[in-house]
């Protein structure tokens, strides 16, 4: 009688090679997915850092003095000053900027940008005699707004709040003697 036994030795090696290839393919796909997720997470973290730096840095800076204007030589009724962009800052939309003005005797007043006349609730932004709604690098924009009467030796707090970047707060004091044009110190 003939033996019915088969020789499976060669077939077992082929099975092992297929299983090994399958493991390598699965590992490669898994590593691709993990690396892709890692790159995506790194990119999102980088965007967050850049946004944080953009929000925390001051984009605007004062250029020159802050002046208080008077019509009656008894009190300051308007304030004007010039701003520019910090080096390396990108253009800024002035229509989205607010100015907060206060004195020890008054509550803070939030002023919005206007292309009309300045008032106690709005400010104008001009380059020369032209109203502007944005500030670009190397521009010097004059800001003017009216206030309720501010008497001599009164401390004023002004804060510029752009839509992007850090606020620029500063305090100035009216001089002891009020003239038509006063440098606030």
Structure overview:
This protein has 185 residues and is an alpha+beta fold. Helix content is 26%, strand content 40%. The strands form 2 sheets. Strands 1, 2, 4, 5, 6, 7, 9, 10, 11 and 12 form a 10-stranded mixed beta sheet that branches. Strands 3-8 form a two-stranded antiparallel sheet. The protein starts with 8 loop residues before the first helix and ends with a strand. The model has no long low-confidence stretch (mean pLDDT 88).
Task: Tell me briefly what this model is.
The mean pLDDT is 88. It contains one helix and twelve strands, in the order H-E-E-E-E-E-E-E-E-E-E-E-E. The chain is α+β, with helices and mostly antiparallel strands.
Number of helices: 1
What portion of residues belong to β-strands? 35-45%
Q: Please count the beta strands (DSSP E, at least 2 residues each).
A: 12
Largest sheet: 10 strands, mixed
Whole-angstrom Rg: 34 Å
**Separation, N- and C-terminal Cα atoms:** 119 Å
Low-confidence stretches: none
Amount of helix:
25-40%
Order of helices and strands: HEEEEEEEEEEEE
> What is the oligomeric state here?
single chain
Q: What is the mean pLDDT?
A: 88
Identify the overall geometry: rod-shaped
The structural class is: alpha+beta
């Amino acid at each position: 009688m003939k033996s019915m036994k088969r020789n499976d030795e060669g077939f077992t090696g082929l099975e092992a090679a297929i299983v090994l290839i399958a493991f390598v393919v699965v590992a490669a796909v898994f590593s691709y997915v993990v690396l892709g997720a890692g790159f995506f997470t790194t990119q999102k973290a980088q965007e967050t850092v850049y946004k944080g730096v953009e929000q925390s840095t001051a984009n605007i800076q004062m250029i020159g003095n802050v002046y208080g204007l008077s019509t009656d030589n008894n009190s300051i009724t308007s304030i004007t000053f010039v701003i520019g962009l910090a080096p390396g800052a990108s253009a800024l939309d002035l229509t989205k900027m607010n100015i907060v003005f206060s004195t020890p005797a008054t509550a803070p007043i939030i002023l919005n940008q206007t292309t009309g006349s300045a008032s106690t609730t709005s400010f104008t932004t001009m380059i020369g005699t032209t109203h502007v709604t944005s500030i670009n690098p190397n521009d010097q924009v004059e800001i003017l707004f009216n206030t309720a009467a501010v008497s001599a030796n009164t401390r004023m707090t002004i804060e510029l709040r752009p839509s992007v970047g850090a606020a620029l707060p500063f305090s100035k004091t009216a001089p002891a003697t009020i003239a038509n044009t006063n440098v606030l110190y």
